[in-house]
Amino acid sequence: MKKLVIMLAVPLIVSFGLLLWIQQLNAAQGFGGDNTLVVYNWGDYIDEDLIGEFEEQSGLKVVYQTFDSNEAMLTKIEQGGTAFDVAVPSDYAISKMREENLLLPIDYDKLENFDNIDPRFLDKSFDPGNKYSVPYFWGTVGIVYNPELVDGEITSWNDLWEMPLENDILLADGTREVMGFGLNSLGYSLNTTNKDELIEAEEKLTTLWPNIKAIVGDEIKMLMANREAAAAVVWSGDASEIMYENEELTYVIPVEGTNLWFDNLVIPSTAQNVDGAHQFIDFMLDAEIAARNTDYVGYSTPNEAALEFLDEEVTSDERFYPSREVTQNLEVYENLGKRMNAYYNELYLRFKMQSK
Ligand code: N2P
């Protein structure tokens, strides 16, 4: 009898396990569906408790995947074979995805909480009328540094070259970010398409290698908190997150200017659960949910209604919530087209290969 039970149970358990495994795999590979929602976001860019709460509220199972650059996210979606229902590209990547018909329009009848967004963050040139995207976080690129480890005050990109910072700088690994500060340090636009300027920027960046300790991803926050480096080129939200625990650190928007960026929620055209995607976007737009998410990830929220739930010390800090006067002098990345993007990537790679 025992034998018979085992004989019957084993194949049953195996096939049940196999079924579950196939379901998970399908969702991850992009064969989502009505009960699943596949979300593709930057690493360290959500309070993961909120995913569970959304699942409970919506009855949907969220398959959550992350990327670490717009370029990686774009390549994956462009290649096809995925079924992300929600993704979080930045400005210039949104414009590129729009051009390539990779996005579905947002159905505003399905969003109750959209009015929570500060109009300052709407109707940008990368998505006029917000036809395809809803603001998620925004910020700048700048320098976070530890005044105890730096001899003097850092105010400019050129300080990275000129101050005694040997083997003491970390860089966030991003083509536009690194090429951008190289260009800005020379007084050029970070959207230049002038090849001479680009080559000059790449050559100047190469001379920074003696000061560069490493080019890294999200671990930049941990490394700075552990005093592994004196300064780092980071997105403002990463600086704010590090500084929350390590008050001696500070963040500066360099005097030569920098990038102002916007990350928005979009629905890729291959989505299998468009209704669920809208539910998720609306959930993230709720004032209290947005406040909790902001508090957790440390980035700046475009959700005006969320501000009242946040620490005023943070939301009134001009380093992280710079005023219009400051942001109007900063540059948003433009979509430079396939060939120019490839050229930026090529130069960035060449710079990286010359590490000491
Ligand atoms: C979060 C990265 C945010 C990217 N880890 C800024 N566009």
Which whole number gives the mean pLDDT? 93
- The helicity comes to 40-55%
The assigned CATH architecture of the largest domain is 3-Layer(aba) Sandwich
The number of domains: 2
Oligomer state of the chains in this structure = single chain
Considering the chains and any ligands shown, give keywords for the structure.
single chain; 356 residues; D-Maltodextrin-Binding Protein, domain 2; 3-stranded parallel sheet; 16% strand; disordered N terminus; binds pentane-1,5-diamine
Structural notes for this entry:
- The strands form two sheets. Strands 4, 5, 6, 7, 8, 9 and 10 form a seven-stranded mixed beta sheet that branches. A three-stranded parallel beta sheet has the order 2-1-3, sandwiched between helices.
- Helix content is 42%, strand content 16%.
- The chain is globular.
- It folds into two domains: 34-138 and 261-321, Periplasmic binding protein-like II (D-Maltodextrin-Binding Protein, domain 2), CATH 3.40.190.10; 139-260 and 327-353, Periplasmic binding protein-like II (D-Maltodextrin-Binding Protein, domain 2).
- The chain starts with a helix and ends with a helix.
- It is α/β, with parallel strands linked by helices and 356 residues long.
- It has helices at residues 2-29, 48-58, 70-79, 91-99, 159-162, 175-185, 195-206, 220-225, 236-245, 274-285, 287-297, 312-315, 324-327, 338-353; strands at residues 36-42, 61-67, 86-87, 103-104, 133-145, 169-172, 212-216, 231-235, 250-252, 260-268.
- It binds pentane-1,5-diamine.
- Residues 42-45, 90, 218, 235, 261, 263 line the site of pentane-1,5-diamine.
- One of its GO terms (biological process) is polyamine transport.
